[in-house]
Amino acid sequence: MDVPREPRWLSEEEMTAWLALASVLIRLPAALDGQLQRDAGISHFEYQVLAGLSMSPERTMRMSELAQLADGSLSRLSHVVSRLEKRGWVRRTPDPANGRYTLAVLTDDGWEKVVATAPGHVEAVRTLVLEPLTRTQIRQLSEIGSRIARAVDPDGDCPTTRFRR
Predict the structure, then answer these.
(1) Integer Cα distance of 76 and 78 in angstroms
(2) For the HTH marR-type domain, which residue ranges apply (predicted)?
(3) Does the domain spanning 36-117 belong to CATH 1.10.10.10?
(4) What is the pLDDT of residue 159?
(5) Which residues of the chain are modeled with pLDDT < 50?
């Protein structure tokens, strides 16, 4: 019989770091979503979908890959893409390489929406995340984020890595 292992409680320094990160994880998405809703009339999830398509070859991606990129279920993505289709920003088409898949395609109007929305979003990211930090801290944030991402996703399946420069 296995003996229960004593919990490895956080030190005061670790607890402070964890609570700071938890606060960012809770508040940053809401702040980014609020900016996009206010300035562009779209949610952060909708922006992720549009931006993901805008950075894909031929502005096209399989729905299953897009769901993974946007970190949403295929069902949630389908509902969002339906809304984006009604606005004329995205269209769906069967994948000619494999008819079992559906492709999401960013339309020209969708491209224009991304181009119009991106500057405000980038400014929000700059204001909320980058400007409070020194250049050294930005480099550290990049390294810290990468290390945490590898711990969370050791196989490196996170699709956002394909858009890194």
Answers:
(1) 5
(2) 12-150
(3) yes
(4) 58
(5) 163, 165
